[in-house]
């Protein structure tokens, strides 16, 4: 429980730090809240005086009532205007804070190492950025709108009641702690429930995104029943936490209403006895009953606010957990900017005694050394899981090595800015990535300023122009997320066209033609051969026929380079590569 309280306090402090830049709006909200409460509390005074002027039938002081009615109208108008302005200030605070948090979270996501994203479900991360921030904004807005006015109303009402009658006010004060105790007791138990509810909502979002995104696979393998079972399990857990959270939070309002009913009844009884004894007038009694109602009303509102704030704080805690994730190591202040002009003149890549593992328990790359000169075509082959794609991740600095060094032209990649280093690479992976937008926008993703002629030239180079031309709107055809209805081969051709447009000094091709038909593959391989002339290239391949022309072939096994050489030299050696090659082409 202490840890939960500590977490709650830390979260509240961090929320306040986000609110701090907008404190002028907080002060404005407080000022308008004071005006709203003052005018609201003054209205019963005017009403009480008006009641006292209505003595009996035929004995009404109309001359005295007229200015009171005008005053009452002015009070109502002031209340409406100040309430409106207070709402504007509260909205500004809430949406500015939420915008700042979303911007900070999104910027932090871009700074997080790839390891963080790889180890988590995408839907769970999306839930934190969208659902949790939305829940937080709703609770924060309600808190600002009702908390200020509620607290000020309670204090103001007490002062007004004390000015009318001390004895009746003491009755109110004596019963009030019961309402506060009930609200506090329930609030302590709702934070944990709302946090579990928020976590389960994240699991639900992740599962739905997984199943919807893989609907073809679900249907192809008859996974529907298992999908329903998994969904039902998560849904049941979410329902359980939600019911408990709502149950505890829903207790707050009726409990406080019961206590408030006692307050109202106490004021009515004591006030009536006092009026019979001549202690107060009937108008003052009516004024007091109005104050008792206004005094108890904020307790109901604040109890609801506390529930919403508990939910908001629980959601904010999950968002702050994401913000607290350690970002990737920033570029050194004096980091070298690697220009394309530099790499076009010279590109020497050296790996010395590189060691890396995704988890400490399972070493992958132990002692890898490699030297690649400008213009060399390096092919990387080996069985699944041997470290081929991992080597690419290390070259691109998607993951940081555990030991050793990787250098480009004598500079450690950790002394080169990430952006400039990655700008010199062009990547085509087996997994395609396309965004919602036109085909032209997807091809020009790395060069948004490219004109249409350059885009068409790149598409023709990889033989994508023909199928694009047949699309409904050609290059202006809008495709959905991840390519929409395009075939896997068409998606891959667009990714290849993206690199053809960039023409980077260094290339990384990781099974770049794995989803393309044989005839198109031969044409694309020819285009790649032209593209790789004079460029340092790394080609990861399972089909060994695609890498015969490589200058050097690296054969990897269990994270180590066990053989290297040309295609002919490795075949003559009759080692592991020869076995791989013959297993593909000799049916063995």
Name the CATH superfamily classification of the domain at 2-324: ABC transporter type 1, transmembrane domain
CATH class call of the domain at 2-324? Mainly Alpha
Shape estimate: elongated
The largest β sheet comes out as: 6 strands, mixed
**Content of β-strand:** 5-15%
How many beta strands in the DSSP annotation? 14
| Structural class by helix and strand composition | alpha/beta
Helical residue percent? 55-70%
* Low-confidence region ranges: none
Mean pLDDT, rounded to whole units?
Answer: 80
Rg: 35 Å
CATH topology of the domain at 2-324, anyone? ABC transporter transmembrane region fold
CATH architectural group of the domain at 2-324: Up-down Bundle
Question: Which strand order do you get reading across the main beta sheet?
Answer: 8-11-12-5-13-14
Terminal CA distance reads 64 Å
The number of distinct helices, counting runs of at least 4 residues, comes to 19
Description:
The protein has helices spanning 2-19, 23-52, 62-111, 114-118, 122-164, 166-213, 215-220, 224-276, 282-324, 340-345, 388-395, 418-423, 439-443, 452-461, 465-469, 488-502, 518-532, 567-573, 576-585, and strands spanning 54-56, 59-60, 349-356, 365-372, 377-381, 403-408, 411-412, 425-428, 437-438, 478-479, 506-510, 536-540, 552-557, 560-565. It starts with a helix and ends with a helix. Helix 17 links the parallel strand 11 and strand 12 (536-540). With 588 residues, the chain is of the alpha/beta class. Among the domains are: 2-324, ABC transporter transmembrane region fold (Up-down Bundle); 426-503, P-loop containing nucleotide triphosphate hydrolases (Rossmann fold, 3-Layer(aba) Sandwich). It contains 19 helices and 14 strands. Helix 2 (23-52) packs antiparallel against helix 3 and helix 6 packs antiparallel against helix 8. A six-stranded mixed beta sheet has the order 8-11-12-5-13-14, sandwiched between helices. Strands 4-3-6-7 form a four-stranded antiparallel beta sheet, with no helix packed on it. The model has no long low-confidence stretch (mean pLDDT 80). Helices cover 65% and strands 11% of the residues.
């Amino acid at each position: 429980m202490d840890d939960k309280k500590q977490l709650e306090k830390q979260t509240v402090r961090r929320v306040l730090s986000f609110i701090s830049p907008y404190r002028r709006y907080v002060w404005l909200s407080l000022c308008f809240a004071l005006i709203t409460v003052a005018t609201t509390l003054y209205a019963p005074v005017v009403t009480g005086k008006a009641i006292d002027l209505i003595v009996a039938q035929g004995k009404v002081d109309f001359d005295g009532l007229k200015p009171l009615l005008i005053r009452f109208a002015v009070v109502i108008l002031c209340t409406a205007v100040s309430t409106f302005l207070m709402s504007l200030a509260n909205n500004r605070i809430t949406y500015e804070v939420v915008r700042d948090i979303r911007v900070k979270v999104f910027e932090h996501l871009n700074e997080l190492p790839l390891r963080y994203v790889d180890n988590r479900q995408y839907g769970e991360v999306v839930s934190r950025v969208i659902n949790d921030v939305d829940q937080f904004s709703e609770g924060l807005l309600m808190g600002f709108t009702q908390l200020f006015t509620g607290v000020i109303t309670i204090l103001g009402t007490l002062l007004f009641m004390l000015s009318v009658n001390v004895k009746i006010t003491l009755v109110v004060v004596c019963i009030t702690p019961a309402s506060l105790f009930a609200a506090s007791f329930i609030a302590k138990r709702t934070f944990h429930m709302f946090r579990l509810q928020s976590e389960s909502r994240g699991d639900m979002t992740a599962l739905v995104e997984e199943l919807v995104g893989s609907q073809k696979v679900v249907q192809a393998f008859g996974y529907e029943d298992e999908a329903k079972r998994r969904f039902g399990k998560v849904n049941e857990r979410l329902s359980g936490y939600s019911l408990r959270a709502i149950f505890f939070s829903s207790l707050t309002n009726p409990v406080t209403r019961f206590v408030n009913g006692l307050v109202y009844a106490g004021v009515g009884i004591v006030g009536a006895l006092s009026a019979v004894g001549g202690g107060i007038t009937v108008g003052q009694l009516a004024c007091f009953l109005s104050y008792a109602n206004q005094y108890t009303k904020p307790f109901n509102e604040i109890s609801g606010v506390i529930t919403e704030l508990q939910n908001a704080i629980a959601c904010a805690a999950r968002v702050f957990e994401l913000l607290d994730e350690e970002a990737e190591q920033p570029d050194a202040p004096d980091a070298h900017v690697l220009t394309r002009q530099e790499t076009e003149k010279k590109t020497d890549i050296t790996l010395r005694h590189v060691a890396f593992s995704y988890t400490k328990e399972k070493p992958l790359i132990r002692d890898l050394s490699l030297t690649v000169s400008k213009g060399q075509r390096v092919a990387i082959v080996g069985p699944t899981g041997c470290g081929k794609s991992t080597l690419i991740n290390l070259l691109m600095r998607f993951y940081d090595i555990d030991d050793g060094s990787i250098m480009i032209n004598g500079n450690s990649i950790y002394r080169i800015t990430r952006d400039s280093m990655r700008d010199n690479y062009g990547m085509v992976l087996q997994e395609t990535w396309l965004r919602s937008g036109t085909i032209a926008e997807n091809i020009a993703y790395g060069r948004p300023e490219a004109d249409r002629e350059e885009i068409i030239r790149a598409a023709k180079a990889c033989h994508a122009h023909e199928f694009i031309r047949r699309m409904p709107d050609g290059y202006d055809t809008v495709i959905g997320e991840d390519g929409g209805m395009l075939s896997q081969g068409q998606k891959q051709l667009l990714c290849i066209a993206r690199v053809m447009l960039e023409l980077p000094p260094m290339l990384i091709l990781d099974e770049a033609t794995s989803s393309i038909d044989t005839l198109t593959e031969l044409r694309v391989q020819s285009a790649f051969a032209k593209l790789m002339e004079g460029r340092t290239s790394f080609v990861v391949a399972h089909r060994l026929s695609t890498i015969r022309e490589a200058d050097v072939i690296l054969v990897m096994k269990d994270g180590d380079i066990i053989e290297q050489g040309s295609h002919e030299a490795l075949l003559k050696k009759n080692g592991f590569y020869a076995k791989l090659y013959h297993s593909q082409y000799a049916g063995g």
